[in-house]
Design goal:
Two copies of one chain form a homodimer. Chain A has 167 residues and is an alpha+beta fold. In chain A, 49% of the residues lie in helices and 17% in strands. Chains A and B meet through helix 1 and helix 2 of A and helix 1 and helix 2 of B.
Amino acid sequence: MTFENQGGEGRPAEPDRPEEPEHLRLIAEIEDKWRRALADLDNARKRHARELAHQAEAERRRVCLAWLPVVDNLELAIEHAGDRDDPLVHGLRAVRDQAVALLQSLGFPRHDETGVPFDPLRHDVAGVVDDPAVEPGTVVTVLRPGYGDPPDRQLRPAAVLVSRKQE
Amino acid sequence: MTFENQGGEGRPAEPDRPEEPEHLRLIAEIEDKWRRALADLDNARKRHARELAHQAEAERRRVCLAWLPVVDNLELAIEHAGDRDDPLVHGLRAVRDQAVALLQSLGFPRHDETGVPFDPLRHDVAGVVDDPAVEPGTVVTVLRPGYGDPPDRQLRPAAVLVSRKQE
């Protein structure tokens, strides 16, 4: 790009007239481009920092979500074993607790609370039950625990049974 | 910042002389700043893309490394159960296989090969054994499997017993 010739055409040839106004316009123009490039650079750096933070969290969530079926199946195996007094089952409960503690340390605490009010952000309703002993709209049973907290740090809501609302 | 006055001092007052050389110098100067800002912006974007890719991988590795003790303890529980024909043990082997397949799908294949030559990048020597039946410097037993591949995608080397080198 050359600036010397810009706007040169059609200008009256007046060699004794200072050309400052034309040059000042060019200077202002290129200075404006420079300032915009600096602003772009500043914005790019800020966006970069945000994206890095966001991406690490997204990757952590993605990987932990992939591990949940392993934890679920370990829990199913423990449940199938029932209450038998077997060192193997005790050992497996310890492994399950280790996995749950790990998920918590990575930002995704386990949620399997019963007796709490139904919350559409935290609970997927797998069924409705009649239970006159509890307040309507209460979580009665947790079929599958949830992990993490809505809206941004949730791996999944808990799958629950809820007491029927009064008509 | 103003450019109009830069270099203006000490300049002979010659109103009839065109001021083009001075203005051209200013234009070249600010144009140079603009070009450098554009180059910085370009470099920042390239570095950003590299950092994002690197960071996602680092986070994936960090999280998977944190899961390895869970997999190790599950395996220890299965080993302690021995060869008993118990549906629980069969179920646990399936969970273990699921975890190993997950690690592989995330970029960290399991390594527990025996009969292969010792490789300092892939093996931590936990002990040396005399075994005239195999080539010296061969992996005889894997005490703890390794995951991933050196140099960049390794979670950990395998802990192994190696046959003694011939003196």
